[in-house]
Amino acid sequence: MTAWPATLAEGSVRLRPLRRRDRRAWHSTRLANAAWLEPWEATSPDPLAQPPASFAVFVADLQREARAGRAMPFAIEYDGVLVGQLTVTGIVYGSLRSASIGYWVAREVAGRGIAPTAVALAADHAWFRGGLHRIEVAIRPENAPSLRVVEKLGFRDEGRRPRYLHIAGAWRDHRVFALNAEEVPGGLLERWRRARAVG
Predict the structure, then answer these.
(1) pLDDT tens column, 127-183
(2) Which of 84, 150, 168, 193 shows a CA-CA span of 20 to 30 A to 112?
(3) CA angle 172, 142, 75 (to 5 degrees)
(4) CA-based nearest residue to 136, from 149, 152, 155, 122
(5) Where are the beta strands (DSSP E) in 69-155?
(6) Is the preceding omega at residue 185 within 30 degrees of 0, hence cis?
(7) What's domain 10-197's superfamily in CATH?
(8) What pTM did the predictor assign?
């Protein structure tokens, strides 16, 4: 049973592989949300590092990682429109069976449950189709919208990691949240559905 490529959906939220033909929609969404996303963007500590030469190269790099089983790069759609991206990265098998999830959504759709739904879909897929055991999300302590996502989903707070990731030009502290598959036997999506049902 292969975990990639995959298309996952819940209501109006759909995850599907990021494609080269997403270039126009992806760029336009990123441009419109530059100020909203920039404080949380990963950067390289190497001043000579160059960003991908084009969106096609960016997607090709992600697809190569996906074919190697090290990543799952999803576009997030809401009502059929690309509104963000979620990537399962750092996939490790062996005795660890772990991965990290990173995501962003456009500001105009934030607060509608899209990010928690996307994270729940991806985590369940990684656990139940990908055979992983642990999912981790690292969030800057100042990123209140992302902190609400993991809070809504019931991720375990594992504490602060000083100067953990290079973000917006400097090494930044992060709080790390995680869940293991056995902590959510019915799946994270089912937990999220129940949480929404009770308000």
Answers:
(1) 999 999 999 999 999 999 999 999 999 999 999 999 999 998 899 999 999 999 999
(2) 168
(3) 85
(4) 155
(5) 72-78, 81-92, 98-105, 134-139
(6) no
(7) Gcn5-related N-acetyltransferase (GNAT) (3.40.630.30)
(8) 0.96
